[in-house]
Amino acid sequence: MADMEKIVEQLSKLSVLEAAELVKMLEEKWGVSAAAPVAMVAAGAAAAAAEPVEEKTEFDVVLKDAGPKKIEVIKVIRTLTNLGLVEAKTMSETAGAKVLSAVGKEAAADAKSKLEAAGGVVELA
User: Fold this and answer.
1) Which helix (H) or strand (E) holds 124?
2) How many Å apart are CA 14 and CA 100, to the nearest integer?
3) How many CA atoms lie within 13 A of 51 on its CB side?
4) Long-range pairs, 50-57, Cβ under 8 A, ≥24
5) pLDDT at position 125, please?
6) H/E element holding 59?
7) Helix 70-81 crosses helix 85-93 at what angle (to 10 degrees)?
8) CA dihedral sign, ordered 103, 105, 109, 110
């Protein structure tokens, strides 16, 4: 068997053009292609990268804190939910209360902006 270290030493002295020519010669001698496995790996990586990440479509609008303008927040809660005054007041006093559940992205963003404009601290979950 040939001394592997000598072969490695000789191969490392080859220029890029000489290495490419060596690859062509080995492909012809052995009847294989060095590009096929590389193409398969690249295609597999591209397919994995092409899988779409599922975007969240439903959101919960959670009131973390009513803030200093509690009455304004209660008014917004009432318009968003059609709750009565007592229920809206209770919701505004409950940290982590879900004002809206399973709503679309635009509706959640709209509700969040209205509640924040009224002084509330809101989180979309």
Assistant:
1) strand 121-124
2) 68
3) 6
4) 56/105, 57/104, 57/105
5) 85
6) strand 59-65
7) 120
8) negative
Q: What is the pLDDT of residue 21?
A: 85
Amino acid letter at 105? K
- Which of 83, 53, 63 is closest to 124 using CA atoms? 63
pLDDT of 78 = 92
Show the DSSP H helices in the chain as ranges: 4-12, 16-30, 35-50, 70-81, 85-93, 105-117
For residue 85, give both structure tokens. Answer: 């005054």
Query: What are the per-10-residue average pLDDT scores of the chain (125 residues)?
Result: 79 82 82 62 52 74 89 91 90 88 89 90 88
pLDDT of residue 31: 79
Map out the domains of the chain with their CATH numbers: 4-50 (no CATH), 59-124 (3.30.1390.10)
- For residues 34 and 27, the answer to whether their CB atoms sit within 8 Å is yes
User: Model pTM greater than 0.70?
Assistant: no
